[in-house]
Amino acid sequence: MRKRSMPLGKVYSLLEPGPVVLLSTAHQGKNNVMTMSWHTMMDFEPPLLGCVVSARNFSFTALRSTRQCVLNIPTREIAAQVVQCGNVSGRALDKFAAFGLMPMPASMVDAPLIAQCYASLECRAVDMRLVNRYNFFILEVVKAWIVSKCSNPQTLHHRGHGNFMIAGEAVKFPSKMK
Ligand SMILES: Cc1cc2nc3c(=O)[nH]c(=O)nc-3n(C[C@H](O)[C@H](O)[C@H](O)COP(=O)(O)O)c2cc1C
After folding, report:
1. Is the peptide bond before 46 cis (omega within 30 degrees of 0)?
2. Does ligand 1 come within 6 angstroms of the Cβ of 158?
3. How far is the CA of 174 from the centre of ligand 1 (A)?
4. At residue 115, does pLDDT exceed 70?
5. 13 found inside a domain
6. Contacts of 25 by beta carbon, 8 Å cutoff, 6+ apart
7. Which domain range does residue 106 map to?
8. Domain count of the chain?
9. With a 6 A CB cut-off, is 120 part of the ligand 1 pocket?
10. CA angle 50, 100, 3 (to 5 degrees)
11. 11 or 91, higher pLDDT
């Protein structure tokens, strides 16, 4: 997928609806990816977000050590791979190869973008104070990518136990929120 640069001030609009994301990392020469739905926006610009990455996950070690990751936002076309990335650890498996995901170099971090995802957010961990207590990382988006044509992305929204909603109809109401 070809992506264009995206204004950082618009990043919140990708994440606020809470889509399931693929968190990619690179650590000690190895790329990894895990499925994540526990994330939240914290500020508009620079975009800040918080996320919970369990200390049991291989990705935790990579994120804590490198303080870098990419949040890739998938759509329904790769839903099966998204769930697979959440069912198995990357400790002994190259999930990119196993599930046919294509890594692409990022511009500001060592972790890879995922080609099949419609948007990719390069992030740096900027506050680690809640990691020991809550496994909660505060990330700043330092570069955002989005495909050129994607008016109504069919993102995945986790409802627990393998159940997902797929984003559908778009509606607009008068609102004071940015
Ligand atoms: C829909 C879905 C959402 C998930 N959300 C999270 C999450 O927010 N935080 C987390 O630590 N694990 C989450 N997981 C579980 C991890 O993706 C899973 O433990 C994964 O195998 C970790 O891979 P790793 O060991 O390669 O890092 C989720 C899994 C699924 C299927």
Report:
1. yes
2. yes
3. 36
4. yes
5. no
6. 31, 32, 33, 59, 62, 63, 66, 68, 69, 111
7. 19-166
8. 1
9. no
10. 60
11. 91
pLDDT in tens, 75-85: 999 999 999 99
Q: Which atom of ligand 1 is nearest to the CA of 56?
A: 25
Q: What is the pTM of this model?
A: 0.94
Question: Do the domain assignments include residue 1?
Answer: no
Tell me the chain's radius of gyration from C-alpha atoms: 15
Q: Cα separation of 96 and 33, whole Å? A: 7
Ligand 1 pocket, residue 12 CB under 6 Å = no
Q: What span, in angstroms and rounded, lies between the C-alpha atoms of 47 and 39?
A: 13
74: domain CATH number is: 2.30.110.10
Q: Is residue 174 included in any domain, yes or no? A: no
Which string of DSSP letters, residue by residue, matches 96-141? HHHTT--EE--SSSSSPEETTSSEEEEEEEEE-TTHHHH-EEEEEE
Which tokens sit at 128? 């680690």
In the reported structure, the alpha carbon of residue 35 is separated from the centroid of ligand 1 by a whole-number distance in angstroms of: 5
Average pLDDT over residues 85-90: 98
Which residue's CA is minimally distant from atom 18 of ligand 1?
A: 86
Question: In the Cβ-directed half-sphere of 78, how many Cα atoms lie within 13 Å?
Answer: 24
Q: How confident is the model at residue 16 (pLDDT cuts 50, 70, 90)?
A: low
> 151 falls in which pLDDT band (50, 70, 90)?
confident
Residue 94 lies in a domain: yes
